[in-house]
Design goal:
The chain has 476 residues and is α/β, with parallel strands linked by helices. α1 crosses α20, α3 crosses α8 and α6 packs parallel to α9. The structure holds uridine-5'-diphosphate-xylopyranose (UDX). The site of uridine-5'-diphosphate-xylopyranose (UDX) has 25 residues, from α1, α15 and α16. Keywords: Transferase. This is Glycosyltransferase. Belongs to the UDP-glycosyltransferase family.
């Protein structure tokens, strides 16, 4: 379908429209995907985005069009800590207002006038309202999963998990292995019955399931060597539903894309931590970040602070606005005396250039909430992880790190509350594990090599998948 310089044979370029969910962990991979398709497939790009959490106009990539739509969230929902409520409210408002349909219709019209017909809408799986709007206009959709292939598969397994009695989870069964989805255990499953609003949680899972089933392609930010059995199973399962939806493993997107991290960052990155890392010994620093969405309770925040302080290990800690529950979007107050206690050994920033920090030679370990982007960024840099997942797909990622890939360990697994003494001890054991740590570091290094190999031009699995994805998009 494509000639040498990426133009369709009929002349005129093709355009794609992309619509991310407006959270950091979703915006970044979507913009990275846009950049990859723009450069590799010569596709023209329109990014549809909500007016709230819009990508910074000053840092937007050249040549992309940006079209805002209102998210329609009531103020109380926008201010809440619950991402599921936000997702449902956005979808409901978009359905009611028709704003996505109107925006798409106008993009389709001007694209036709400019002889850049739109191939498809590439959208976040959590936006069924966008898929409905596209379908009404006859526009095919491709979904981007910003989670792993294992989580993508898990989200399609809820009927089985209920049928087989894994869910609703019973307290005494939390350690039970889910033998259909190894290495997961019951405690790793997102359990809608434990969510304050069970119906909302089920609706999100259902929406996710439907957008994937109804799509013309599934893009996952992962790579073949990392999730070989999970990708094979997912392909078999999607094929067996009769939709034969193609699955493209095109990660790690952050490395494949040339887009500047600032272009997709919703917060200003504090580069001073990189010069601070320059002053630290190789492999000595624990980088700690608890993600961008879920807050921690105030008492846990204090335990984390004093755990870091008590460990004696040098650390770089991201304390973002809104990290502490109940504080809104304000900067959390560090506990009294904390800064004095860690002077010279600990650095706290509001937001770090994370990828640069993980790539820095001084960083020897990553205390992570096990968000998928963070996990993949750490895998790519070969940094072992100390995992303390908070929500959603994060326990799945942590389980894979601890048991399948063995490039990290879980922090205080099974214990509901963090405790400073145990944290300090766990950090010391993680950063200086003696011979026990050899396997973890070897595995981290092996995965780093595999991640680099999948990006090899020509032969790497990710590069091949990108070419296949471009062909697929042009065939729609
Ligand atoms: C959420 C879910 O938690 C995650 O599991 C899902 O896969 C995507 O949505 P989030 O909490 O934002 O993600 O975590 P993560 O997926 O790790 O994404 C965070 C992003 O913010 C990463 O790309 C990371 O590099 C970036 N970041 C984080 C910074 O650039 N600076 C920081 O200081 C902290």
């Amino acid at each position: 379908v494509v000639d040498d310089d990426g133009l369709t044979r009929g002349g005129g370029r093709r355009r794609i429209v992309l619509f991310p969910l407006p959270f950091q962990g979703h915006i970044s991979p979507m913009l990275q995907l846009a950049d990859v398709l723009h450069r590799r497939g010569h596709l023209a790009v329109t990014v549809l985005h909500t007016a709230r959490n819009a990508p910074d106009p000053a840092a937007r990539p050249d040549g992309f069009d940006f079209v805002p739509v209102p998210d329609g969230m009531p103020a109380a929902v926008a201010a809440s800590d619950d991402p599921l409520e936000k997702i449902l409210a956005m979808n409901a408002a978009m359905d009611t207002s028709g704003c996505v349909r109107d925006a798409l219709a106008s993009i389709l019209l001007s694209a036709t006038e400019e002889q850049q017909p739109v191939s498809c809408l590439i959208m976040d799986t959590a936006l069924p309202a966008a898929q409905k709007a596209a379908a009404a206009l006859g526009l095919p959709t491709v979904v981007l999963h910003t989670v792993s292939a294992a989580s993508t598969r898990l989200y399609r397994s809820y009927a089985m998990l209920h049928d087989k009695g894994y869910l609703p989870a019973q307290e005494q069964e939390l350690n039970r292995p889910v033998k259909e989805l190894p290495p997961l255990r019951v405690s790793d499953l997102f359990d809608p019955s434990k969510h304050p609003d069970q119906e909302s949680a089920n609706k999100i899972l259902d929406g996710n399931f439907r957008t994937t089933s109804n799509s013309a392609g599934v893009v996952i930010n992962t790579f073949e060597a990392l999730e070989t059995p999970e990708l094979a199973a997912l392909r078999a399962e999607l094929g067996s539903t009769g939709t034969s939806t193609k699955v493209f493993a095109i990660g790690p997107l952050h490395e494949l894309s040339a887009i500047d991290a600032a272009a997709s960052s919703l917060q200003e990155q504090d580069g001073s931590c990189i010069s601070w890392l320059d002053t630290q010994a190789p492999g000595s620093v624990l980088y700690a970040s608890l993600g961008s969405v879920i807050p921690v309770q105030k008492d846990e925040f204090a335990e984390v602070a004093w755990g870091l302080a008590g460990s004696g290990v040098p650390f770089l800690w991201v304390v973002r606005r809104g990290l502490v529950a109940g504080g809104g979007e304000s900067d959390p107050d560090l506990p009294d005396g904390f800064e004095r206690a860690v002077e010279g050994r600990g650095k706290v920033v509001r937001w770090a250039p994370q990828r640069e920090a993980l790539a820095h030679g001084a960083v020897g370990g990553f205390w992570t909430h096990s968000g998928w982007n963070s996990t993949l960024e750490s895998v790519h840099e070969g940094v072992p992880m100390l995992c303390r997942p908070l929500f959603g797909d994060q326990p799945v990622n942590a389980r894979y790190v601890g048991e399948a890939w063995k490039n990290g360990v879980l922090l205080m697994e099974g214990e509901k509350k963090l405790e400073r003494g145990k944290i300090a001890q766990a950090i010391r054991a993680f950063m200086d594990p003696g011979e026990k740590g050899d396997e973890m570091r070897e595995r981290a290094e092996e995965l780093r090599r595999q991640s680099a190999a999948c990006l090899e031009p020509g032969g790497g699995s990710t590069c091949r998948a990108v070419d296949e994805l471009v062909d697929h998009i042009l065939s729609l």
